[in-house]
């Protein structure tokens, strides 16, 4: 038992560290890009990175509990801890929905997009998102019937939450999000197909160039991004929710330890995949990340080059040597 708890704690600690590092880095890159470009839609992606980073911080607390065994937390402590974990995961899923809606709006109404996506509306959406996420996560705190009285030493979903709460999250959280994802992608696919047909008609008439216009390219990028997000979201969270429902209906059919120790980790992996996907698929994020890395590298090289002074020389010679060394390092 102690070895298994330590192994799970180590896995959670490594996963949480990667989630925090990746999302904080992407958040810094997005913040720099938003300041330069003024793009309001990227605020949804920034919020996704912050929500996933919070998932990492909350999971780090669970990892600390696993590594600190024997640990005997109180029932209220476990409920509050799992409420924070659930709120962070809900904020991440809701942020994915906002990102998909933003890309859908950019494709459906490209000429009115910047008029519709204003700073005030983005702020209202983000505030509403976090209010809904906190409500979902802390619902068992407000409604005691969702709490489960258990003498088990471990803080986990099935030890502190009733199956009815898991069923509520599944019916009113995961399923609507998945259906909305599929609807948005199908609608974007239909719009992009119409755009491609129009482009082909113009090219056949000899009125257009052979290369596709910019809005068609942006449509394909948006569709590709949403498709990858939907696929990763489904593969990460669907096994956890399906097996949770099966375990509620038939507790003997599927052990809850497998759900909590393996399938839940798969769902948490979605918070690690999101920043990796955006850093890989989005060229703007790639360029900003490369500029950030190049800036840090340049400063490190300049600092190392300025410290290469030759003892026994006067100040003028020392400064001259350092200046030449820095120029060579920059080149």
Write the layout of secondary structure elements.
Layout: H1 2-37, H2 42-67, H3 75-108, H4 113-116, H5 119-137, H6 139-142, H7 157-160, H8 163-204, H9 214-249, H10 256-281, H11 283-306, H12 315-330
Which bin fits the share of residues in helices? over 70%
pLDDT average, as an integer? 78
Low-confidence stretches: 309-331
Largest sheet: none
Strand content: under 5%
Tally of extended strands? 0
- What Rg is obtained from the alpha carbons, in whole angstroms? 25 Å
Please give the count of helices: 12
GO molecular function, one term: G protein-coupled receptor activity
GO cellular component, one term: plasma membrane
Membrane topology: Multi-pass membrane protein
Transmembrane segments: 6-32, 44-63, 83-101, 122-143, 163-185, 226-249, 261-281
